[in-house]
């Protein structure tokens, strides 16, 4: 996270829909992100740990070691919470045990969303790289979807690194930048983000933070305790 930005949160991708823009009247595709129970577990300061960060716990599947279990028990939090860190410029007055609400984000701001694309397994070049394949007839035998030649002759006598070939497709870490928040539903703990290109399947988790290429949000909707 860029210095000066606030904490980021893990949110669950629950689906996609559409809504109408009140100003233009146009139909806008959106993605719904659910913030499950998230608590502040602890803080780290540069004077002791070498950097400033907030340790958060969110209710999702994950491996929790014994020291983390003890930290959760002291705060009266269930042990099935997954811990993660979010770096900030300054910790501020965050108190362990306090709950983070979806109102941490607000309507109109821009966010960056990071997730993992859906895995496609081992894929050929036509599916993975959009190759056209070989001819359907005239000398081609049982290799219509192959990629053809991959290298040169004796010089250089090898295949260059980065050559587009068949291989594992998907399950890659992808960040969608500058997505606008269309709506914040505090009652349902939902964050409605513009666009449907957020990586991952329904039910997967994505990391949402303030956009690094946009100014740090300011205004009454922000809590000073959450500001970096």
From TrEMBL:
PROSITE patterns linked to this entry: RIBOSOMAL_L3
Ribonucleoprotein in keyword set: yes
One GO-annotated biological process of the protein: translation
One GO CC term on file: ribonucleoprotein complex
Listed transmembrane segments: none
Molecular function, one GO term: structural constituent of ribosome
UniProtKB keywords: Methylation, Ribonucleoprotein, Ribosomal protein, RNA-binding, rRNA-binding
A Pfam short name: Ribosomal_L3
NCBIfam families in the cross-refs: L3_bact (TIGR03625)
Family: Belongs to the universal ribosomal protein uL3 family.
Record note on quaternary structure: Part of the 50S ribosomal subunit. Forms a cluster with proteins L14 and L19.
Function: One of the primary rRNA binding proteins, it binds directly near the 3'-end of the 23S rRNA, where it nucleates assembly of the 50S subunit.
Protein name per UniProt: 50S ribosomal protein L3
Organism, scientific name: Anaplasma phagocytophilum (Ehrlichia phagocytophila)
Lineage, highest ranks first: Bacteria, Pseudomonadati, Pseudomonadota, Alphaproteobacteria, Rickettsiales
């Amino acid at each position: 996270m860029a210095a000066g930005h606030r904490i980021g949160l893990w949110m669950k991708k629950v689906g996609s829909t559409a809504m109408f823009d009140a100003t233009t009247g146009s139909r806008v595709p959106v993605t719904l992100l659910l913030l499950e129970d998230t608590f502040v577990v602890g803080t780290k300061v540069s004077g002791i740990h070498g950097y400033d960060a907030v340790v958060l716990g969110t209710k999702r599947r994950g491996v929790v070691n014994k020291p983390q279990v003890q930290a959760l028990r002291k705060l009266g939090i269930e042990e099935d919470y997954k811990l993660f860190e979010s770096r900030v410029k300054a910790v501020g007055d965050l108190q362990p045990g306090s709950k983070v609400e979806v109102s941490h984000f607000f309507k109109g701001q821009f966010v960056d969303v990071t997730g993992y694309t859906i895995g496609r397994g081992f894929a050929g070049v036509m599916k993975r790289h959009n190759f056209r394949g070989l001819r359907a007839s005239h000398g081609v035998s049982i290799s219509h979807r192959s990629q053809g030649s991959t290298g040169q002759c004796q010089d250089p006598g090898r295949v260059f690194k980065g050559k587009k070939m068949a291989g594992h497709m998907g399950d890659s870490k992808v960040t969608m930048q500058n997505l606008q928040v269309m709506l914040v539903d505090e009652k349902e703990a939902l964050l409605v983000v513009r666009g449907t290109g957020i990586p991952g399947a329904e039910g997967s988790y994505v990391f949402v933070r303030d956009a690094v290429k946009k100014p740090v949000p300011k205004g009454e909707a922000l809590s000073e305790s959450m500001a970096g």
